[in-house]
Amino acid sequence: MDYAFEFIINNGGIDTEKDYPYKGTDGRCDVNRKNAKVVTIDIYEDVPANDEKSLQKAVANQPVSVAIEAAGTTFQLYSSVIRAHLAAGFICGPFG
């Protein structure tokens, strides 16, 4: 996710899907298209892995994006049972 955050910072923001729709094809960026820059960020911070207290603090103060390791068979063969160790990765926040 760090690369995405760096792109948003260096680009001065990002447009909406409506303003710049994804086409799923190789090509060049349309430099003449409207640049609304509706979302910007100034900084980001990585929360240490497996540090629940740091994650709780982050979620209480700003939106948090979470990456999960989905390469293992436990995740790939998931069908219907909620697994506590996987469900913990879906916190978004801030709560209020």
UniProtKB/TrEMBL annotation:
This is Peptidase C1A papain C-terminal domain-containing protein. One of its GO terms (molecular function) is cysteine-type peptidase activity. Residues 1-85 form the Peptidase C1A papain C-terminal domain. GO terms for biological process: proteolysis. Gene3D superfamilies: Cysteine proteinases (3.90.70.10). InterPro entries: Papain-like_cys_pep_sf, Peptidase_C1A, Peptidase_C1A_C. Belongs to the peptidase C1 family. Pfam families: Peptidase_C1. It comes from the Eukaryota.
